[in-house]
Amino acid sequence: MTDSQFIPDDSEITEGQLQLQDRSSLRRVPGLSTELQDITEVEYRQVRLEKVVLIGVWTTGTLIQAERSMRELAQLAQTAGVIVLDGLIQRRDRPDPATYIGSGKAQELKRIVAQTGADSVICDGELTPGQLRNLEDVVKVRVVDRTWLILDIFAQHARSREGKAQVSLAQMQYMLPRIRGWGEALSRQGAGVLARGPGETKIETDRRRIRDQMAKLRKDLAAMRKTREVQRTSRRKSAVPAIAIAGYTNAGKSSLLNKLTGAGVLVEDALFATLDPTVRKVALPSGRTVTVTDTVGFVRHLPHQLVEAFRSTIEEISDADLVLHLVDASDESPLAQLNDVREVLGEVGTNLDKELVVINKIDAVDTQTIVTLKKLIPDALFISTQTGAGVEDLLVEIESRLVQNDVAIDLVLPYSAQNLIARAHEIGSVNKLEHLESGTHIIATVPLVLANQMRETIRK
Ligand SMILES: Nc1nc2c(ncn2[C@@H]2O[C@H](COP(=O)(O)OP(=O)(O)OP(=O)(O)O)[C@@H](O)[C@H]2O)c(=O)[nH]1
Ligand SMILES: [Mg+2]
Q1: Does 271 contact ligand 1 (Cβ within 6 A)?
Q2: Beta-carbon count within 10 A of 227 CB
Q3: How far is the CA of 69 from the centre of ligand 2 (A)?
Q4: Percent of the chain with pLDDT over 90
Q5: What are the tens digits of pLDDT across the range 380-408?
Q6: What is the pLDDT of residues 74-95, one digit of tens each?
Q7: What's residue 180's pLDDT?
Q8: Rounded to 5 degrees, what are φ and ψ at 83?
Q9: Residue 127 to residues 92, 147, 305: CA-CA distances in angstroms?
Q10: Is 379 in the pocket of ligand 1 (CB under 6 A)?
Q11: Structural domain boundaries of the chain?
Q12: Cβ 272 under 6 angstroms from ligand 1
């Protein structure tokens, strides 16, 4: 595509030379170009083709990690409906404060953009407004960053009123300090498809109006959050244990919910297919009922604007009695996924004691990978939502985890409290039930919430 002088041929250089070479030129990340078959998908979605070059700065870690990051950026770009023409990284101690990549490299990037016919550049990070503007000035096409890209995918996937409001708020928060630069860039180039979404209209709007809109969105979201809290309180009152499925985007969370319940939730080989939590009832092997919630996926460095805006959605996870942390075994670095998700979970205050690691897609990997993962994460369960392998065992494990939170009761309940006995059958395990004159004698193990409700009844 571009001439080979930019591309160091690895077979001809040693490790020592690699460092030097890395510093003096842009490295091409192999295998990033969008395959032709994706074009039909893009046309199907009626999105005008957008052709981009990806650029990253490799500051820490190994080359493998840097390339993994670029491959993920390419996946994000393709999820957003963009054609990836090329991907390049520059080795630097830190991103250039003015232009992200060094000024010499920016000139090289300009040539590559011209040669490939790209209409945009996507940078692998969150750039300052100044960096975006300066780099645009050099390469003469639109420059966006990873945060912008993720926000765009969220905007494309938002369905519910709450989801749309959450995404708009995050987008506005991101746009606010960047309005001027974006305005200039667009008036110079004309708005490309990458400017779709709230972006276009926001450019003419002044900051004040955006702030007003943000205030309104925050108010709307607070009201929706209240509704969600009311629902959650009533769920908690019913004492039905809540289980949340969390995990990296595309790990198979929605597939698992569907497997357990036939919920018919959207499953897609795309990043961030799910934004809105779906709650369904599931019966465990003993017959007791739990609720299972499918939640929004995480990603490495999930933009803080999204963590903030999606806080109430993510709280479904921290509030759950048990968190199934789903990990994609077929990912090139499942452990990195595991840690990235734990980082976000920690940010929203999730207690990791409630975590049960579940490795999914075991049908898609070889035995050696499974053996290695078992060694690394001895407590994990291994499943395939596709073949159903391990799913029964998962249910048994969920049950035994929940039982650990149960308390033993030995009480005589008044006959007016029949509903509580029905609940004990539904969500606990009843060992003895005897009808006495004074009421029903029950010996059982039940969730703490229900035990408390029973004790409360007797005290009245
Ligand atoms: N081979 C294999 N593929 C699976 C398995 N489970 C899910 N997948 C595939 O993985 C992709 C993502 O599945 P989803 O269930 O949408 O994943 P998710 O975690 O809900 O993803 P987001 O909502 O986008 O965060 C789909 O293409 C599924 O068909 C599995 O056990 N084996
Ligand atoms: Mg999903």
Answers
A1: yes
A2: 11
A3: 21
A4: 49
A5: 999 999 999 999 999 999 999 988 888 99
A6: 999 999 989 999 999 999 999 9
A7: 55
A8: -90, 125
A9: 15, 9, 14
A10: no
A11: 4-157, 158-238, 240-402, 406-459
A12: yes
Amino acid letter at 304?
H
Place of tokens 């009245």: 460
- Give residues with Cβ within 8 angstroms of 218, minimum separation 6: 169
Q: Taking the domain 240-402, which CATH number applies?
A: 3.40.50.300
With a 6 Å cutoff on the Cβ, whether 153 touches ligand 1 is no
105 touches ligand 1 (CB under 6 Å): no
- Tell me which fold the domain 4-157 belongs to: Rossmann fold (3.40.50)
- Tell me, what's the pLDDT at 20? 40
Rounded CA-CA distance 350/165 in Å is 24
Task: Measure 199 CA to ligand 1 centroid, in angstroms.
Answer: 30
Same fold, 4-157 and 240-402: yes
Which of left, alpha, beta for 439 (phi over 0: left; psi -120 to 50: alpha)?
left
Q: Which H or E run includes 402? A: helix 391-404
Contact status, residue 195 vs residue 155, Cβ threshold 8 Å: no
Place of tokens 């018919």: 264
Q: From the CA atom positions of the chain, what is the Rg in Å?
A: 26
- Provide the token pair at 313: 């959605």
Ligand 1 centroid to Cα of residue 143, in Å, is 31
| pTM, two decimal places | 0.80
d(CA 349, CA 412): 39
Residue 274 has what pLDDT? 79
Most informative mutation of 41, 75, 153, 250 for ligand 1 (most atoms within 8 A of CB): 250
Q: Report how far residue 194's alpha carbon sits from residue 176's, in angstroms, rounded to the nearest whole number.
A: 17
Please say whether the dihedral angle defined by the alpha carbons of residues 411, 413, 417 and 422, taken in this order, is positive or negative.
Answer: positive
Q: What's the 327 CA to ligand 1 centre distance in angstroms?
A: 10
Q: How far is the CA of 170 from the centre of ligand 2 (A)?
A: 20
Round to whole Å and give the CA distance between 73 and 54.
Answer: 8
**Does the CB atom of residue 385 touch ligand 1 within 6 A?**
yes
